[in-house]
Design a protein that fits this description.
223 residues, Tetracycline Repressor, domain 2, 0% strand
Length: 223
């Protein structure tokens, strides 16, 4: 008979392995992170690791989903999601992401999705697809708010909300990479402010002060 105490610890052990995998792979990447590294960081034996994951690729795939779900939950609980005005939600999202990044004392370790996509897109098709699906999901959510704002405020404007959402994802991921190499948050802040000015022009608000949608939700996962 399986020991009840041991059985109750299993989900906790899996969570520790996923948290350790996310942390290490954000900093070191996939190839430089070993199963031993993950086990040491999680304080779990190799036997415990292989009880849940048959390979490092399997834990990486699960870590990506774990990371994506945590980020999605943070966005769903953010105050800007409750705003009725779609354009305010657009700016609120920018401020939420920027503040989340800049509140960290340490320079960002980068996005796990971007990290693994750059490293494994060619060699690990399954992980590439997993990262792509996560990017598409995040981009689609932003596209919906942009489309609603366009319909309300700039129905005749000549821009495609989908392309603007894709542009922001490129700026977001690129800024994380540049911040990591420069060891400074400055480039992220400048790029986000520049994108906000681009949006102001698209919505015919270039002459107005940029809105600052504050988000009191400070208890969300770091990017």
């Amino acid at each position: 008979m399986t020991d009840i105490t041991t059985k109750s610890k299993r989900p906790v052990t899996r969570q520790k392995l996923l948290d350790a995998s996310v942390k290490l792979m954000r900093i070191k990447g996939f190839n430089a992170t070993s199963v031993e590294d993950i086990c040491d960081a999680a304080d779990v034996t190799k036997g415990g690791f292989f009880h849940y994951f048959h390979s490092k690729q399997a834990v990486a795939k699960a870590a990506v989903e774990h990371y994506r779900q945590a980020r999605q939950q943070a966005f769903e609980q953010a105050s800007f999601r409750k705003l009725a005005d779609p354009l305010e939600r657009v700016y609120g999202r920018l401020n939420f992401i920027k503040n989340d990044l800049l509140e960290s004392v340490q320079v960002t370790g980068g996005c796990l999705l971007g990290m693994l996509a750059q490293e494994l897109a060619i060699t690990h098709p399954l992980l590439r697809q997993t990262c792509q699906n996560a990017f598409l999901s995040m981009t689609l959510e932003f596209e919906k708010d942009l489309a609603a704002a366009k319909t309300r405020y700039a129905p005749q404007a000549d821009f495609d909300p989908k392309k603007i959402a894709n542009l922001f994802m490129a700026i977001y991921q690129g800024s994380l990479l540049l911040a990591k190499t420069a060891e400074s948050h400055t480039i992220m802040e400048e790029n986000f402010d520049q994108f906000a000015r681009l949006l102001a022009g698209l919505f015919n608000r270039a002459s107005q002060p940029l809105p600052v949608i504050t988000d009191p939700s400070s208890d969300h996962s770091r990017n």
